[in-house]
Amino acid sequence: MRSKFKKKNCIYCGKPTTSKDHAPPKCFFPKPVPKNLITVPACFDCNESFSADENYTRTILASAKISDQPGSPAEKIWNQKVQRSLQKNSKVLKEISKSFRFVDIYHGPIYLGRRPAFPCDRGRIDRIIDKIIKGLFYFENKKPLSNEFAVKILWSPYEDNKIPHKIINVIITSNIKQIGEGVFKYRSIYVKEDLNWSIWVLNFYNSYLTFIGITGKERNNNIVKI
Asked: Domain range for residue 186?
């Protein structure tokens, strides 16, 4: 473990650091991996507990773009890692093959055409998006997200009709940060009075699927709106 995390606590559970974690997961990147991967302090138990869901999430995200142009990052990660992972886990492969179909895809009001699709376990994917946002928050602020705050995850800025259009405009015009060309890019927007209030936009493999993360205080199992 690197010395910079020697006296830190795990950003996910608060226990003493015994490992490090990548945000986003290292397994999302094809070889050669970029040199600017983000690492955060973590404990061994939390790190290990994410592993299966990271691989599952990578499979779902990469599958959305494997029909892209030859040599794309999604195709590379599929050929380098996903195929091998599916061969080891035939149950997941059978589930995907059985439920595979074509559906109409929309991004808000915009029709994107018909794309291949299959049902996925949103809970597992949201868990990884949640931990990526917490990792990025730590990286940008040098401290964990407050325990009083949680992350609400949307799979499109239009999923929650209560988000004001002016907030959506701020999201889509904010600066883009990138890790690995064509693999991962994100935006982060903070409330100046308290940086724990924030909005995150995550995109993988240049997919049409964009994740929105809103950090806010928990109240009766819901997130208080910004």
From this structure: 3-223
**Domain tally for the chain?**
1
Question: Hey, CA dihedral for 221, 52, 93, 24, is it positive or negative?
Answer: positive
Q: Cβ distance 183 to 205 under 8 Å?
A: yes
Contact 209, 155 (CB under 8 A): yes
pLDDT at 194 over 50: yes
Q: Which helix (H) or strand (E) holds 139?
A: helix 122-141
CA 54 remoteness from chain centre: 9
Digit-coded pLDDT (tens) for 78-120? 888 888 887 777 666 666 666 667 878 776 678 878 876 767 8
pLDDT on residue 28: 96
Peptide bond before residue 32 is cis, with ω within 30 degrees of 0: yes
Distance of CA 26 to the CA centre of its chain: 12
CB 176 within 8 A of CB 185: yes
Q: What is the mean pLDDT of residues 215-223?
A: 65
Residue 123 makes CB contacts below 8 A (sequence gap 6+) with none
